[in-house]
Design goal:
Helices cover 21% and strands 31% of the residues. It contains 2 helices and 14 strands. Strands 1, 2, 3, 4, 5, 6, 7, 8, 9, 10, 11, 12, 13 and 14 form a 14-stranded mixed sheet that branches. The radius of gyration is 24 Å and the shape is elongated. The structure holds calcium ion (CA) (4 copies).
Length: 277
């Protein structure tokens, strides 16, 4: 028994050393998001956003300081694929969008510039707000259980295809000149099982601006002509994982295993001290 435990310790030690050597090498040449390699067939045109694997889940409170730096979309009237209405400047309507993921959840952090926030209407699409269009299976079909048009209005109202929902978590934090939106969407709404680095979803994002009440004044869509029924026009959300984050997670697991081995050794030594039956 003791021999088996000793062999286990040697194996775990060897793995730990190997991982730490890998980790040191990764830290010498940090991998940036731009250097993440994605198979060519997965990089669809039109545009894509890399969703980064988050080591710690963000608190969904509208405060985005708990997000790591990462790739983002700058959405304004010049970068939008579709643009309707009147926008006089980026302060009137624009946004910066980031995304993150873990095994259970897809996250978005959205900073919206909007100098006059109005939420006076019954229909969510007539007020200031954000629309997230997702084709979870990336099958270009709009009407499966993987397909959603999530709207988060500047007052916090949340809908899926205009129907009020409570099965995603969204928080809006207004500030002078705009509002932050932080969203957590259960992965089970999008795909069966868990995502991996390299998973691709169809994705676009829309922004409505209302400055004077009643219906909207301007509407921007990042990719496509609507956020609900034409996923073949969407951009892509590409799931990525930084090497240094993967190594940190493995190192944490090794430390856990080392502690478990210590506990086993303690139990073994207690047995050895018992008198023979
Ligand atoms: Ca937060
Ligand atoms: Ca679909
Ligand atoms: Ca507005
Ligand atoms: Ca309105």
């Amino acid at each position: 028994m003791k021999r088996v435990v000793l062999i286990l310790i040697i194996v775990i030690g060897a793995v730990a050393i190997g991982i730490r050597v890998l980790g040191a090498s990764a830290k010498r040449s940090p991998l940036t998001m731009a250097s993440v390699q994605v198979p060519a067939y997965q990089v669809a045109s039109p545009r894509s956003l890399h969703s980064i694997r988050l080591v710690a889940a963000p608190v969904i409170d509208g405060n985005l300081s708990d997000w790591p730096a990462g790739e983002s979309i700058d959405l304004d009237r010049h970068t939008a694929f579709s643009f309707s209405g009147y926008i006089d400047s980026p302060a009137d309507l624009s946004a910066i969008i980031r995304s993150g993921w873990d095994r259970q959840t897809l996250y978005f952090a959205i900073e919206v510039n909007d100098d006059i926030i109005v939420t006076d209407s019954e229909d969510v699409w007539q007020d200031d707000g954000v629309e997230i269009g997702l084709d979870g299976l990336n099958d270009k079909d709009a009407w499966g259980s993987d397909d959603h048009q999530y709207t988060i209005v500047a007052d916090g109202n949340t809908t899926d295809r205009s129907v009020p929902i409570t099965d995603i978590v969204a928080s809006v934090l207004p500030y002078e000149g705009g509002y932050n939106v932080e969203v957590a969407i259960p992965m089970s709404k999008l795909i069966p099982g868990v995502p991996i680095s390299g998973t691709v979803m169809g994705f676009t994002i829309g922004l409505h601006d209302d400055d004077d009440g009643d219906t909207w004044d301007a509407y921007l869509i990042w990719e496509g002509t609507n956020t609900s029924s034409s996923p073949e026009e969407f951009g892509s959300l590409i799931f990525t994982e930084r090497l240094e984050d993967r190594i940190d997670a493995l190192e944490a697991r090794i430390i856990q295993l080392e502690q478990q081995v210590q506990e086993l050794l303690m139990i073994l030594s207690e047995f050895e001290e018992l008198p023979p039956p």
